Amino acid sequence: MRYRVGPSVIAANWARCYEELERAKEGDFIHVDVMDGHFVPNLTLGPDLARAIHERTGKPLDVHLMLTHPDRYIHRFVLPGVFRITVHYESSAFLSSTLRRVREAGLKAGIAISPDTPVSRLLKLLDKVDQVLVMTVYPGFAGQRMLEWVLPKVSELDRMRRERDLRFTITVDGGVKWENLSKIGPADEVVMGAAFFRGRKPAGTDPGSPL
Questions:
Q1: How much is the pTM?
Q2: Count of domains in the chain?
């Protein structure tokens, strides 16, 4: 199965930023993790660095907001090159309005779920999103091992979109490596961190289809 691959720049070696961004250009898009030190216990990239990444690479940016109040920051990530903003189901009580604001800005709206959140929580939101991001690690830190017990959510989401004739993208994020792609199932995209920048892509690996 072919997947679109988004290298997550949180896993890049920023002491070699130019070389790492050149490597990231091999992906189909670039995944930008934004963490506030509150929703998750880490601090990462902001809008200025996201803008610089696009200017350097020319690649479309997928912005993943791991923030307690994502609605307060949507406008700051409506930037050249950003094609999608994803917010966490667990992060806000105003999800419908936040997703609407993303779409009104002309971007694709995604919703992410952490490992312990059941897919059933999304039933009333699936017709309002362009993407569901399935976290296969607990959000906040790069380099974790994939929690394979989360993967049945991918098949469940695929069944739900087929039954309801919906067109949202399914993305898997967390511990994805070239060696475990065969376990992921009917997703459309994967986000790959350390394995992308420090692993070796198997010969003959096909790229995904266009965005």
A1: 0.90
A2: 1
Residue positions annotated with a catalytic role: 33, 173
In this prediction, residue 211 has a pLDDT band, given cuts at 50, 70 and 90, of very low
- 161-183 residue pLDDT tens: 999 999 999 999 999 999 999 99
Burial grade of 7 (CB within 10 A; 0-12, 13-18, 19 or more): buried
- Burial per residue of 173-208, b for 16 or more beta-carbon CB atoms within 10 angstroms, e otherwise: bbbbbbebbeebbebbbbbbbbbbbeeeeeeeeeeb
Q: Which residue has the higher pLDDT, 202 or 93?
A: 93
103 found inside a domain: yes
- 184 found inside a domain: yes
Which two structure tokens, joined as six digits, stand for 109? Answer: 């709206």
In a domain, 111, yes or no: yes
CATH number at residue 112: 3.20.20.70
Tokens of 99: 């997703």
Binning pLDDT at 50, 70 and 90, where does residue 67 land?
Answer: confident
What residue numbers bound the domain in which 88 lies? 4-198
